[in-house]
Every structure is written in structure tokens, then in C-alpha cells.
């Protein structure tokens, strides 16, 4: 028999349990029950703070959550049947289940659920499970996925969420053999996800989500977007601190440059990741794809320079849309993505401003109406507008002439092949519980 693999996760778990039992009852932390002050993960992982799962289940943190037994979760997922498998990520497999009348308890209705099961041999572990419970147990918002409950038995760690019928944005946007997501749906998803991030950033104690990407945006039957996966979330900087200095975790292709370079984490790191997802929505291309020509492996490196020039947008916009999108809307969305993807954090907009811009873009549909703008080269080779788009003058975006007709052309670009991003966590665990 091969020796059992020792992972950082199991070490943490053992230390956690050992410290807990070593501490006298009187020294264990008492969670505030009455006044609502969001409990942070650092309250649990700071030295000298030992919180047992029993303490957790009696606290304000989990008052919204149901505690399930492993037996119950086995039953509702048909013993974690492969037929019920919805997908698998770094935490472990996710199964569909149904809470029926037999499992009901006060406050729990019959409903489909998604059950996430920790892979005990994987890179994630108890800390991510706990982070999910601590953040999602306390934060409720229409654009955050609802955590219904959890299970902890021996080393097993499970999470039970509301079931999101349309799965992840990643599945919807990059699926090969189905109709492309319409423009208006893409803008709706961008707005929903932006509202979720804005809520986190504007909380009394701001939260940095740290893993904003297409696979973590889940969709309900009406394409309302909800953020899932708070395993890497962090509390924002406190006091005079400009950033949180932390180990580098996240997904390649989405993480902000300053965070990857030196571990400086701020809410602006999330804004950058939002820019990457917005770019994925505009282009229909994955943030990283080794199957593309080498110049285009990184979507941001390739597409960002094109975003600031409206005349180059036809090279960027997803050809699968076949011209069915709002020209003005696409320009504004591209300008927004460009700002979010600023190399330095300062010029990036706050998420509340991103929400405002995206709200203006909802229902924008000038793809079939409005005059064309003709572009004629003059003697010195520059271009003049001949036909004039009046509505453009009233808009905020006014950067030269727009070759609107170009965007209605059928696809000139080959459809991007499906390839999977390297969603493995690139991390350094020097800081252990960070
Ligand atoms: N609440 C849910 N409802 C419906 N499907 C879900 C739900 N949660 C997750 N899924 C499905 O399970 C898949 C795996 O999700 P998970 O969050 O574990 O991994 P991931 O986001 O793909 O990868 P990573 O570990 O890098 O975050 C998702 O892509 C989605 O299709
Ligand atoms: Mg995920």
C-alpha cells in the first residue's frame, strides 16, 4: 500500500483540530449572537483563535444554513451518481440533487440543489470550505448564489447550493454545438455579475472576491447571473492599508498584473478580472487558449489594444453574433472593458461605476435601425464622416467615425476551438492560511 499523501490541507485540518481540543473552554472564541457584525475568515485563522464546527453551527454565521448529514446528501444525489454529475472544479465534483418532502425541515422547501463534494486528494480543502460558509452564510444578494447548507463528517466536507439551471457562463458562452448567446443576454449577464461584485466591494466590511471568471458565474433560467465559489475570497484592506498582501491564488488569464507580480490585492484586482470576463463576452473567446495562434494565446494581450479604436472593433466582436448587436452598445462595452483592463489599478473604474455604464447598455438595440455612417478617404488619407449618426452625437462615446456596415458582415474569423483554460490554482502556499 502506498503511504497516504500529506497535503497542506490535511496538515491545516489536523493543526486546527489539535489546537481546538488543547484549548480550555473559557478560551474558545465566543461569537456575537445579537448584533450583526460579519465574521471574517481571519477571525478563525488568526493564531489563538480556535472555532469548532459546533461553535460555527451555533453562530450567527450559519443561522441561515441547514446542516445535512452525509447520508441525506447521498440519498438526494442517488449516491453521487455519475448521472447527476454537473461538473467538476478544483474543489471537487458537483452533483444535482433534489430535496423532497422527506428531507424537509423548518425553512427548507422542496427544491433541486447542487451538492459540491470536497475531493480529499485535491489542492483545496477545509479552508476553502470554511471560507464558503463564512462568506455565503452571511452575505445574501440576488446576484450571489445561495448557499443552502453544508455537511461535515470526519474529513468529508460538502456544500449545498440552490440549483442554477443554466450552469456556468463558461458552459454557455463557449459551447460549440449550440446557438450563440445573444448580445442582450451577454449584457444582462455582465450587469448581473457586476452588481454581485459591486455588492461585495461596497459591504460594510468590503470583500475581495479574488476568483472572478466565467466558470464562477452561474445562471438561472432567465440568465440572471450569480457569483459562486467564495473559497478564495478575502476581506479587503483595513485602516490605512492600501492593499492586502497575500499569497497569489486565482486562475491564470483572469488575475490582475499587480497581484500576480507582487501579491497586492485590492478590489481593483476584481475589476481587472471583470474586464477579462467582459472581453470574453464581447469576443466569445476564452481568456487563455493555447490552441489559438501564439500571438493570441492571451486574450487580453491580443484584444486590449484593439478596444480603444472603434474601427477595429469588428476584429474583436464575436463573429458568432453575425452582426446582431448594438453598435453603440458594443463601443461602450469595449471602452469599459479597456478601462477595467488598465495595467495599473488606479485608472480602473469602481464596480459601482461599471454597473451604471452597463445599466445604460441594457436594451440598447441599434443593430437594425439608424442611419449608416459612410467613411470616405480624403486626399491626405484620413477619413471624413459623410453620413452622420445623430444619436451618436448625443451619446457619451464620440471617437471619430464608425464603420457600422463592417460589423454586419458575416464571420471573417474562424470559430474559436474549444479548449480548456488552465484553471488550476497557481498558488504559493507559503502563507498557509492566506
Ligand atoms: N449551484 C449550481 N447549480 C448548477 N450547476 C452548478 C452549480 N455549482 C456548480 N455547478 C456546475 O459545476 C461546475 C463545476 O463548478 P466548480 O465551481 O466546482 O468548478 P469551476 O468553477 O468549474 O472550477 P474552479 O475550481 O476553477 O472554480 C460548474 O461549471 C457548473 O457547471
Ligand atoms: Mg467555480
TrEMBL record:
One of its GO terms (cellular component) is plasma membrane. Residues 80-361 form the Protein kinase domain. SUPFAM superfamilies: Protein kinase-like (PK-like) (SSF56112). One of its GO terms (biological process) is defense response. It is an enzyme of class 2 (transferase). It is found in: Cell membrane. Its EC number is 2.7.11.1. One of its GO terms (molecular function) is protein serine/threonine kinase activity. This is non-specific serine/threonine protein kinase. It comes from Liquidambar formosana (Formosan gum).
